[in-house]
Design the sequence.
């Protein structure tokens, strides 16, 4: 079998402040959290259900942070993907904060990054954002 890669859930902000919240964790931790959300055994969950649960968690974090950011600000739909090496900041992003947590002996990280690439990228990012306000 293939070794599972870490998962990273993200939501992006666009508007008066542009950036993202990233939640990185092991697939095992994401599966455990999803099992708690769906009130079922971890082994009975599909990959889609695990991704949905992780996306919902990062969406809640982003929704809470949105109210602390300069407005107006829109929040994207969550995205979840496997990553080779989870890193907080990608090219063009500045790390605002990166906090590690331990739950049930599993570590996960939540990072906030700011888009520092300038107005051209901000316009592209805003086009990707769901126009619905949360």
Sequence:
């Amino acid at each position: 079998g293939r070794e599972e890669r870490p998962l990273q859930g993200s939501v992006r902000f666009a508007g008066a402040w542009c950036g993202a919240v990233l939640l990185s964790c092991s697939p095992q931790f994401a599966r455990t959290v999803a099992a708690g959300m769906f009130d079922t055994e971890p082994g009975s969950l599909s990959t889609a259900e695990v991704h949905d649960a992780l996306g919902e968690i990062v969406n809640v974090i982003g929704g809470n942070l949105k109210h602390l950011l300069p407005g107006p600000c829109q929040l994207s739909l969550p995205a979840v993907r496997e990553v080779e090496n989870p890193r907080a900041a990608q090219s063009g992003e500045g790390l605002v904060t990166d906090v590690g947590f331990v739950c049930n002996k599993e570590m996960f990280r939540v990072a906030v990054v700011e888009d520092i690439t300038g107005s051209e990228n901000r316009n592209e990012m805003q086009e990707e954002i769901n126009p619905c306000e949360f």
Notes: The first helix runs from residue 27 to 38. The CA atoms of residues 3 and 27 lie 10 Å apart. Helices lie at 27-38, 47-66, 119-128. The beta strands are 7-15, 19-25, 73-75, 79-82, 93-103, 106-115.
